[in-house]
Amino acid sequence: MLVGGFGTRLRPLTLTTPKPMLPVAGVPMIERIMGHLAEHGIDDVVLSLGFKPDAFMAAYPDDVCAGVHLSYAVEPTPLDTAGGIAFAARAAGISERFVVVNGDILTSVDLSQLMSFHESSGAEGTIFLTPVEDPSHFGVVPTDESGRVLAFVEKPPAGEAPTNLINGGYYVLEPSVIERVPEEARINIERVTFPAMVADQSLFAVELPSYWIDVGTPERYLQANLDAAVDDPSTMVGAGCVIAPDAVVESSVLLAGAVVEAGASVRRSMVGAGAVVSAGSTVDDLTVLGDGVRTEPGSTLSGVRLPDPEQG
After folding, report:
1. Left (φ > 0), alpha (ψ -120 to 50) or beta: where does 33 sit?
2. Which of 312, 215, 169, 287 is nearest to 18 (CA)?
3. Which of 63, 106, 179, 260 is deepest in the core (most CB within 10 A)?
4. Whether the Cβ atoms of residue 152 and residue 198 lie closer than 8 Å to each other
5. Which of 162, 73, 179, 177 has the alpha carbon at shortest distance from 127?
6. Which is nearest to 287 in space by CA: 244, 263, 262, 258?
7. Do 277 and 295 touch, CB atoms closer than 8 A?
8. Is 217:128 a contact under the CB 8 Å cutoff?
């Protein structure tokens, strides 16, 4: 599982917390992913770590997460996706078929079906595909009738994508893929390794209908929380939060210990752990308040991030 990224698009929430450790409807994202893996018989996962590795080790001191045994591979320097996968696989001594999962993807994909397709196709690697309305922000994957990948188009210009089926961030790979990546080399799997496999006609992909969301931006992080809500989908409130009786909180995420004071309103925004929306303040339009931030009383914040990640 790739969990070593810096989570820059979700700053300031990720300035102190790695993205996969952020809660989605009260459950850390990594635990939701691990639970899904466990449902399909995966009981041993190597975490490919880079940014704040100690946060993961401290959270799971017994090396077990959602019933799955964890081991750790901490990159000495950022190795990108293919480099991180190969580094973790070598560190764990992997010599058989394995599954790769991106640590910021929430999906209900049938992994057993994905693995079955891979087995039957004789592929060196198989990508899970999912449709999206705008594929310009993702890796687009056209295939032939058998599922053989014809090209791997990373983030095509709007309106020029050959298909709306994108790389869903879950792969089944043979150990030979590891050998394609030089040791401790910084290589991107979407831009280098997959295109090389396309050239060798050894990369396959399959569309599997399922819930899917890339939790990489404030808008999608908010949507993931609302999607995962069981009772009241209007807002997600973490442990220890305090909301004044006359405050308004709608379609938002309040992380643990956040406070919304009298007369304040929070709409379609995220309030970090221990942050305070001061009396009379208005916070809306995907504003993100980092951990411990306090707004000025009576202020209006719309579509901003505090602290400003560009200056921190």
Report:
1. alpha
2. 215
3. 260
4. yes
5. 177
6. 258
7. yes
8. no
Residue 161 has pLDDT above 90, yes or no: no
CA 279/CA 260 separation, integer angstroms: 7
SS3 178: helix
Q: What is the pTM of this model?
A: 0.90
121: part of which helix (H) or strand (E)?
Answer: helix 111-121
| CA distances (Å), origin 145, targets 107, 149, 207, 219, 233 | 25, 10, 12, 35, 40
Q: Are 47 and 13 in contact (CB under 8 A)?
A: no
In this structure, the chain runs to a length of 312
- Residue 233: the pLDDT is 73
Query: Identity (one letter) of the amino acid at 88?
Result: A
* Dihedral of alpha carbons 51, 55, 57, 60, sign: negative
Question: Within 10 Å of residue 6's Cβ, how many Cβ atoms?
Answer: 15
Peptide linkage before 18 cis (omega within 30 of 0): no
Q: What is the pLDDT of residue 231?
A: 60
Domains and CATH numbers, the chain: 8-214 (3.90.550.10), 229-306 (2.160.10.10)
DSSP string, 13-74: GGGTS-GGGSEETTEEHHHHHHHHHHHTT--EEEEEE-SSHHHHHHH-TTSEETTEEEEEEE
Tell me: the pLDDT tens digits for 188-246?
Answer: 998 999 999 999 999 999 999 999 999 989 999 999 999 987 665 778 899 999 999 99
* Amino acid in the structure at residue 280: G
The two three-digit tokens of residue 3, written as one number: 């969990």
Q: Please spell the DSSP secondary structure of 65-104, one letter per residue.
A: ETTEEEEEEE-SS--HHHHHHHHHHHHTT--S-EEEEBTT
**Helices assigned H by DSSP within 201-266:** 218-228
Distance CA 10, CA 1 (A): 19
